[in-house]
Amino acid sequence: MTEPVTKAVEADELRLALLASAKLAGLVEGTLSIGLPALVTGAPKPGTFLEERFRVMDAFAVVLHYVSGRPGGVRDVLRLREQSDRVSAALGHLRSQLFASLALAGGVAKLPEAARPSIIELCDAIAEFGRLVGDGGVAARAKATALKTLDSLGTLTTPLTSAAG
Amino acid sequence: MIPPADVADLRAAFRANPNDLGVGLYNPTTGEVRLGSFDAVTQGRGHDGLADALGIQDNTEWRGFLVTAGGQFIPVSHFNLPDGALALAPAHEAAVVPELRQSSLIAGMGRRP
Hints:
The complex is a heterodimer of chains A (165) and B (113).
Chain A: H1 11-41, H2 46-65, H3 74-105, H4 116-132, H5 137-151
Helix pairs in contact in A: 1-2, 1-4, 1-5, 2-3, 3-4, 4-5
Chain B: H1 4-16, E1 21-26, E2 33-37, H2 47-53, E3 63-68, E4 73-74, H3 90-102
């Protein structure tokens, strides 16, 4: 485990990195706690919901990638960018898996168990980025919520929605 | 009764973004029902975000659900897991749905196909 980069990054940049990584972790929590059940039940419409959520998460991953350092801090900044690249890759992989399961099922997916490693990798990547800038607690909570939700999808045996009107 | 400010805020959020979601929490002990926009109130964090925004200390005392701008009631949340499933327990659904109807956020009664 490598040391945090807190000395290599200006205070404002560090604050931005902390806030953006915590925000991204929260977005992962909201996306998966609602999106995973939606894949199974079809409500809310999983394609629409997930498309918008991944668009926003991708944007925050870009923010993580552009955190800059003090003079002499390039190597630490590059360590941060390795992690932000890892976050972006994990986001892309998870997105592909969730949409593939949706496409295969024609709108309502079977239990997306295959996404478990991608969920873990994404949360761990955000947690590690957070640790490098001083905090990774939000990502740990997101991971716990996502896996708890994934583990419970089997309790959703039928669509559980009511139509308007 | 759902706080009128919750309903008004959620309607405003739906007008701004019809793809937004209403995130709902229900306390079976007190009967409270609270709502918040997924995008504008929960910080994109869903039920946990709403619970934090409301200053809720013990999430296990609350259950969760969703409503859409189109009036769809979705009785699903990981907040329901203390009852053994992601789905809102029927007794809790029976308490929440009339509140949502009274607020005209959903038009029909909840049903379980």
